[in-house]
Amino acid sequence: MKSIALFAILICLSSFDLFAWSSLKDFEKNQSKYKALFFLSHNCPCSKSHIEHIDSLKKAFKEVSFFGVATDLFEESNEKEIQAHYQATNYNMPIIKDTAFHLVEKYRALKTPHVILLEKKQDQYEVIYTGGLTNKRHFDSKSVKFLQENLAELHAGRNVKYRRGKSLGCYIRRLWWITL
């Protein structure tokens, strides 16, 4: 009898979806002094090569709130695949499903991975860095870590070293009616 009850519980848990998309409102409600917004794609090898680096930054700079933005074109045929990727990948941060591309357009993100670093000044956020995480498409070949160096400067009480960095990676596809 116990094994039947355990089996029923396991079936229920296996069908329970532990991954939940974060919302734009969650991002806007967050009142951290610093926020890092990462534009990602489930099928971009450049995004995938930076996952461990993003996770290490999140662990090292706890005063910064990290958010991911799924820039994928969500269609009925691929929605489960995209969600499975973000669920299985170890981003360790909320992932915003920005189907209307509000954040992509607002911050003019061009490629993935692209990062926006925001600083709260009085009641508004100001972009203090925009661009790539590093100076290469693939993390293993980088020689400059733009975001890491900027976060270290902020952590030390100084201004960011870089205001812009070239974003290298996969282009963010846009819906034609959004860009009109």
Q: Provide the spatial order of strands within the biggest beta sheet.
A: 3-2-1-5-6
Number of helices: 7
Query: What is the first-to-last residue Cα distance?
Result: 62 Å
Structural class: alpha/beta
Strand content: 15-25%
**Integer average pLDDT:** 80
Low-confidence runs of at least 5 consecutive residues: 4-18
Largest sheet: 5 strands, mixed
Order of helices and strands: HHEHHEHEHEEEHE
Shape category: globular
- Radius of gyration, CA atoms, in whole angstroms: 18 Å
* Number of strand elements: 7
Helix content: 25-40%
Textual characterization of the structure:
The chain is an alpha/beta fold and 180 residues long. Helix content is 33%, strand content 21%. The chain contains seven helices and seven strands. It has helices at 2-15, 24-29, 45-49, 51-60, 79-88, 102-106, 146-155, and strands spanning 34-40, 64-70, 95-97, 111-112, 114-121, 124-131, 170-171. The strands form two sheets. It has a five-stranded mixed β-sheet with strand order 3-2-1-5-6. Strands 4-7 form a two-stranded antiparallel ribbon. Strand 2, helix 5 (79-88) and strand 3 (95-97) form a beta-alpha-beta unit.
